[in-house]
Specification:
The structure holds two protein chains of two kinds. Chain A contains 14 helices and no strands. Chain A is mainly alpha-helical. Chain B is an alpha/beta fold. The chains are: A mainly alpha, B alpha/beta.
């Protein structure tokens, strides 16, 4: 086979070759190893090696993309887009909150099956503690002191509010599912109001989210969690019915708290776009 | 993307009961602009304001004519911005590739394939491509810093803001950083902070020295060095301590070098010495005088 004329090789590697001639050359390259070596040598001489390396690696990444972490694969398997899964799972603290929810469900299950369970104690304990799991998740979803890359995230064009919502949805889905499992385990022996913790969970989570527009997320989590425990303990000790907080009027009040929190969060959503949240 | 223009006027910010910024104004367009100053001078506060992550209490900022006080314009500025905060961390268990890819997602760098190619490009640029599958927890401090720089370079932004980028880098890595940022400065505006005078002198075209929340010098590194001419001396013995002596130390040849004006009536025979940027910086930033090796 004949070598390719040098001017043609030069024009080809410089990207100045006519399209028709490029097609002819590439057909020839497919059959001539000598011509491939000739063009390869010419390309190496003019192309920045660093750029060449980056190009090869980019091709490698496209052909053989890095394996995504387990949590992201689980989230993607649930039907969420891959990029959203990465946004949701990026905060280590949030992954911990998911694990916490799972552990919480297991503990509730064990408590329900335990031999020392008496009266309505474990029922009340579950109703008081279960709503705190999503609150912890919300407090660990976004913000300074929680997300190590928080300031980099804030300086990016993606809306902080959208990111918060994505992560909060992730938190609520996992913690509600785990809480639901715990509730079902208890219900068999106590006749528990299986869904009575859901509105408190919603109310407290939204209150926590609203508070994070003023203070650090962990502070908001402690404040909301502490206030809830105080109210729940007081009501259960003073009211004739230990579960009064979880019946009609209490549920309505917590729904209103949740809606108010949601309104405040939406109204103050731009606070998530600045580093000085809290 | 072309180099962004940055105009800041009379920025003021109070933090923790003191003035972090007490009326700072600066302009920049293209090239490498260094902010030099002691700890607590206000460098980080200024960069955080310019990076739109903190709103100043007063004053105005324009990046390419866009006002970050307006939400939509702030988002547009962020599309042109690469930012390395002073304290940046990444999830320890995440891989190098995943961390930069996450940053690519929040920076809205398009579909996965194009974004992944860009991730590889910046990892090559900082010399971390070979470690793309390693976990962040396995990286040294210098490598983590380079990882932070890599994410700031995603998308070849018109404005690159780097807070203490040389932190944790060894001398070889610092040289690589200079080379890298010099190249970036040819097509972008690079604003970086440092407390290392040699870093500021090495490759910045413009230098701003900050102290007490104010800019106390703006100009070229050579111009700053020139301000110390005639105020740096050597003498065969240590000079008496006095308010006019900013610093003094023993040289390898046994003579003493001192920075500052010789006290009136000094009996020692003094010889003028060629000032360095560090000498000029010491004379500019008013702090307690330092004597080493006396």
């Amino acid at each position: 086979m004949n070598p390719v004329p040098e001017p043609v090789v030069g024009a080809y590697v410089a990207g100045r070759i006519d399209a028709a001639e490029a097609v002819r050359l590439e057909q020839y390259l497919a059959v001539s190893g000598e011509a491939r070596l000739q063009v390869g040598a010419a390309a190496t001489a003019v192309i920045d090696p660093a750029r060449l390396e980056a190009t090869w690696l980019a091709i490698d990444v496209v052909i053989d993309p890095p394996r995504r972490p387990l949590v992201e694969r689980v989230v993607t398997a649930l039907g969420f887009p891959a990029d959203l899964a990465r946004l949701m799972a990026a905060t280590p603290a949030m992954r911990r909150s998911w694990y916490l929810a799972i552990v919480g469900a297991i503990l509730f299950g064990l408590a329900a099956a335990g031999p020392n369970r008496q009266g309505g104690g474990s029922e009340l304990l579950f109703l008081v503690l279960a709503p705190l799991i999503p609150v912890m998740g919300v407090a660990l979803a976004y913000g300074p002191g929680v997300d190590p890359a928080h300031e980099v995230t804030v300086a990016a064009p993606l809306s902080g509010f959208r990111l918060v919502l994505a992560r909060v949805v992730g938190v609520l889905v996992v913690s509600m599912a785990c809480g639901g499992i715990g509730a079902l385990l208890l219900e068999r022996r106590e006749g528990l109001m299986a869904a009575a913790w859901l509105l408190p969970a919603f109310g407290l989570s939204m209150a926590c989210l609203a508070l994070t527009t003023w203070v650090r997320p962990k502070t908001a989590g402690w404040a909301v969690g502490g206030a809830w425990l105080l109210v729940a303990t007081t009501v259960s000790n003073r009211a004739a019915d230990q579960l009064a907080l979880f019946r009609g009027p209490g549920q309505v009040a917590l729904l209103l708290v949740g809606l108010a929190g949601l309104v405040v969060t939406v109204a103050r959503r731009e606070a998530f776009d600045l580093a000085r949240v809290g | 993307m072309t180099a962004s223009s940055v105009v800041a006027e009379d920025l003021r910010l109070r933090l923790g009961g003191h003035d972090a910024l007490a009326g700072v104004s600066l302009t920049a367009r293209g090239g490498v602009v260094a902010l030099l100053g002691p700890n607590g001078a206000g460098k980080t506060s200024l960069l955080r304001c310019l990076a739109t992550v903190v709103d100043p209490d007063a004053g105005s900022i324009r990046v390419d004519g866009l006002d970050p006080a307006d939400h939509r314009q702030r988002v547009e500025i962020r599309r042109r911005l690469g930012y390395l905060p002073q304290e940046v961390g990444f999830a320890e268990r995440a891989t190098v590739f995943d961390v930069v890819d996450y940053c690519g997602i929040v920076k809205e760098h398009g579909p996965a394939e194009r974004r992944h190619a860009e991730v590889v490009r910046v990892l090559c640029a900082v010399g971390l491509a070979d470690r793309r599958h390693e976990r962040v927890g396995a990286l040294s401090g210098g490598m983590r810093q380079r990882l932070g720089i890599a994410q700031a370079l995603l998308g070849a932004p018109g404005l690159v803001i780097l807070d203490e980028p040389a932190n944790g880098l060894d001398p070889e890595q610092r040289l690589a950083l200079r080379e890298q940022l010099s190249r970036v400065g040819e097509r972008s505006t690079v604003l970086l902070s440092t407390h290392l005078t040699e870093e500021a002198a090495a490759f910045s075209q413009v230098l701003h020295v900050m102290d007490g929340g104010r800019i106390v010098y703006s100009g070229t590194p050579a111009g700053l060095t020139a301000t110390a001419r005639g105020r740096v001396w050597t003498a065969p013995a240590p000079p008496p301590a006095g308010p006019s002596i900013r610093a003094s130390w023993r040289l390898p040849d046994g003579r003493f070098r001192f920075v500052g004006d010789p006290p009136a009536g000094l009996a020692l025979p003094v010889t003028p010495a060629e000032p360095t940027l560090e000498d000029a910086y010491l004379l500019l930033v008013q702090r307690v005088p330092t004597t080493i090796g006396g």
